[in-house]
Structure formats: structure tokens, C-alpha cells
């Protein structure tokens, strides 16, 4: 009997054939995309051996970032005497470079743009995770002129990956625990933008999409995000595609069934201290934390448009001089539904299913689609919120090919 059930299940779980996006088919024509690829090829090249904290490859990555920060004209913080903030236990350094406000005054706030640059090491080279975001960080630092009233700190954090994530050794956590005296207090930080996994592609309908999470906890920042997301982010060359920025609530990423809230990146240290933050990410792909996460699998033209879009967002945030409010539990449920509903509808359609979709996952997706169609997003019950979180996690699992999530 058990054999029959298992056999039925294995048949039901067999994938439906859909082709993933072939990254080699994506054009790389703009100079900025080529420059971004150069950074990724160096940082995720075999010479740096995966940039694991405490290794020679991690120190070489730091030296590269230091050279790039210098070339971009960023200023070191005087309190550190250079771009490096050494971490405990010889793990290596955070790299910090600042662009002072052009009309500097005593009440200037700070904006922080951050991304981790370490990875797992060995045969895990981490192109998408997170050489992609380090490359965007470098090119944003190079091309963004000074803001009038906010200093910008560009932060390449070390030690984000396991076993350091969610521990005091984590580079971003160390940074918030040992804040450089120039910043003084985290209350002076208007907003933090964290980038993680910025180059991956897998499913055709999300090829030009970057998710934007966490800003919903700060209504002022969220308003700026939505304005910037609604403006068309044009590609840099005629044969490339425009960028879509899709706001999603952080709870749709963090609330894991049977486990609870799990933080996934450097925004955590800032969120825990009530600093308004935004996480940008193209999400996990089946190459996440695999030796196949290599430089030739990234979407460099989308990364190039992201550099332009991020500059636009930072200039918009610059308009706001009053500190943003922060409410850790704030959710924008109607917007969450508006973002998730069309994705589920597309994923539940045979022609556009996510690669790796099985009969079981398709069946669940169709149930989710039906539920979403009948849902009133203006008056959610706690059960609605939980169910949307579960739908979102299942969708993300499918995108990363962790199909076991469909058993939940
Ligand atoms: Zn990672």
C-alpha cells in the first residue's frame, strides 16, 4: 500500500517541462553592463576561491573593493583611517566609503547603500551571491553625484554567509554594534538600502524584475519606493528590456511555515534597531548556494538599469529631511496581494509554469490562484495573512527548485 502511495506521489511530483531562461541568450551591449560583468568575473573568479571570511581570497576581494572605492572618489572615514573596518576574530574587513553631502551642515542625515561581498568559499564562487550586488554598489558609488543634504555611505559588508549570519560576527551586525563616530547614532540614518542576489534569472516572467521588500515598515520611504517603482526604468540599449521593481512585504519572504521569522540578509541588523530599510533582490534561483552560481549566469543589462534606478531612488529619498517613521510589524496587505496575485496566475498557467513545476505544485498553485481571485485585500483576517505568506514561500521555493515546499 505504502509503495503504491509513494509511486503515485512520485508520478504526481514529476516536473512539467518548461525551459528556464538561458542567461547566454541575454544581450550584454551597454558599457555599464560590461563593466559590471568585469567586477563579477574578478570577484567570483577562481582566483578568489569563493571569498570565504578569513581566507586570502576574501582579503583579495577586500583589496579590490578598496581600489574601486578609491577610483570612485569615495572618502574614507577619518575614525577608521581608511576604508576598512576590521571585524573580530580575523575574519577580514567591512569596506566603508563615504560621499559627503555637497551642502554640508550640522543636521545632515545619512543614507547607507550596502551589500555583502563574502561567499561560501571552495568550489562555491558566488557570482549572484553576492558579487552581483557588490558590482552594483561599486558602479553606483562611481556614478552618483553627491546629494545636497545627505552623506552617503557605501558599505561592502563581510561575513554575511553561514555560519556568521544572524550572529554578532556578521559584518553588518558588527557595523551597527561598532558604528563609526562620523555617523554618531543610527538615528541619523535616514534609510538603508541593502542588495542581495541581484543578477540571477530563471523564470521568463520575472526576467526583468527586482523585488523590493521592507520599505513598507516606513510609510515615508515606502511612498518614495512606490513613486520610483512606477516610473519607467528604461534599458540602456535599444535591444534590452525595461526594469520592473516589484514591492513585496518582507513578511512574505521571512515567515517560514513551522519555523517562523527568519532573516536572510544584512537588513536584519538595521531592522532590529528600527532603521528604515529596503531590501532589493532578484530572489533565489536553482543556482543559489551551488557551485553553478557562476559569472556567465547573470543578467548584466538588468543590473545596469538597476544602477540607474537606484540613483533615482536615492535622489528621491534625499528630498525628505524629516526622519521616517518605523513600525516593525507594518504590512501593506493590499499591495502584497496586488504583487503576488498576477505571479501566481501566470505560474498556474501551463504555458508559463515555472521550470521544475510538477503536477502536485501546479495543483496547489491553481488552488492558490482561486483563493487569491476571491480574496478581499482590504479586510484581511490573520488567516489570510498567513496563507499569503505560505503562497509566497511556495512560489519562491519553486523559483529556486526547492520543490519540497509543496508538501506544506
Ligand atoms: Zn548567500
Quick structural summary:
This protein is an alpha/beta fold and 408 residues long. It has 12 helices and 10 strands. 38% of the residues lie in helices and 13% in strands.
Overall 3D geometry? globular
Order of helices and strands: HHHEEEHEHEEHEHEEHEHHHH
Q: What is the annotated CATH architecture of the largest domain?
A: 3-Layer(aba) Sandwich
- Rg of Cα set: 21 Å
Report the top-level CATH class of the largest domain.
Alpha Beta
Which structural class do the helices and strands define? alpha/beta
Number of separate strands: 10
- CATH homolog superfamily of the largest domain: Zn peptidases
Measured by DSSP, the beta-strand proportion falls in: 5-15%
Question: Termini separation (Å)?
Answer: 23 Å
- Look up the CATH topology of the largest domain: Aminopeptidase
Largest β sheet strand count, sense and barrel closure: 8 strands, mixed
Helix content: 25-40%
Tally of separate domains: 2
Instruction: Give the low-pLDDT segments.
Output: 1-12
| Small-molecule binders | zinc ion
Task: For the largest sheet, list the strands in their spatial order.
Answer: 1-2-4-3-5-10-6-7
Q: Count of DSSP helices?
A: 12
Amino acid at each position: 500500500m505504502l509503495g503504491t502511495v509513494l509511486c503515485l506521489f512520485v508520478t504526481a511530483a514529476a516536473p512539467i517541462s518548461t525551459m528556464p531562461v538561458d542567461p547566454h541568450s541575454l544581450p550584454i551591449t551597454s558599457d555599464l553592463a560590461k563593466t559590471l560583468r568585469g567586477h563579477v568575473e574578478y570577484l567570483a573568479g577562481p582566483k578568489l576561491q569563493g571569498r570565504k571570511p578569513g581566507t586570502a581570497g576574501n582579503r583579495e576581494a577586500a583589496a579590490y573593493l578598496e581600489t574601486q572605492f578609491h577610483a570612485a572618489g569615495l572618502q574614507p572615514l577619518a575614525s577608521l583611517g581608511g576604508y576598512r573596518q576590521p571585524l573580530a576574530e580575523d575574519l577580514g574587513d567591512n569596506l566603508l566609503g563615504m560621499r559627503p553631502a555637497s551642502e554640508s551642515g550640522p543636521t545632515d542625515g545619512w543614507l547607507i547603500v550596502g551589500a555583502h561581498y563574502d561567499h561560501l568559499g571552495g568550489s562555491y564562487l558566488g557570482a549572484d551571491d553576492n558579487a552581483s550586488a557588490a558590482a552594483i554598489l561599486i558602479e553606483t558609488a562611481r556614478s552618483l553625484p553627491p546629494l545636497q543634504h545627505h552623506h552617503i555611505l557605501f558599505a561592502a559588508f563581510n561575513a554575511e554567509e553561514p555560519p556568521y549570519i544572524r550572529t554578532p560576527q556578521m559584518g553588518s551586525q558588527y557595523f551597527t554594534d561598532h558604528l563609526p563616530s562620523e555617523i554618531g547614532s543610527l538615528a541619523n540614518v535616514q534609510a538603508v538600502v541593502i542588495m542581495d542576489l541581484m543578477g540571477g534569472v530563471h523564470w521568463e516572467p520575472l526576467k526583468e524584475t527586482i523585488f523590493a521588500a521592507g520599505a513598507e515598515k516606513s510609510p515615508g520611504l515606502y511612498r518614495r519606493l512606490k513613486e520610483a517603482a512606477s516610473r519607467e526604468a528604461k534599458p540602456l540599449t535599444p535591444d534590452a528590456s525595461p526594469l520592473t521593481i516589484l514591492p513585496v512585504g518582507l513578511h512574505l519572504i521571512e515567515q517560514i511555515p513551522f519555523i517562523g521569522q527568519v532573516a536572510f540578509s544584512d537588513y536584519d541588523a538595521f531592522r532590529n534597531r528600527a532603521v528604515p530599510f529596503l531590501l532589493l533582490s532578484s530572489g533565489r534561483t536553482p543556482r543559489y548556494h551551488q557551485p553553478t552560481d557562476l559569472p556567465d549566469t547573470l543578467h548584466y543589462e538588468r543590473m545596469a538599469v538597476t544602477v540607474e534606478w537606484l540613483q533615482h531612488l536615492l535622489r528621491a529619498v534625499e528630498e525628505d529631511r524629516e526622519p521616517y517613521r518605523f513600525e516593525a510589524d507594518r504590512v501593506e496587505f493590499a499591495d502584497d496581494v496586488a504583487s503576488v496575485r498576477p505571479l501566481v496566475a501566470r505560474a498556474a498557467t501551463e504555458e508559463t509554469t515555472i521550470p521544475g513545476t510538477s503536477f502536485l505544485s501546479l495543483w496547489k498553485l491553481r488552488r492558490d490562484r482561486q483563493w487569491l481571485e476571491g480574496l478581499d485585500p482590504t479586510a484581511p483576517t490573520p488567516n489570510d495573512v498567513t496563507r499569503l505568506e505560505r503562497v509566497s514561500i511556495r512560489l519562491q521555493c519553486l523559483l529556486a527548485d526547492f520543490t519540497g515546499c509543496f508538501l506544506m
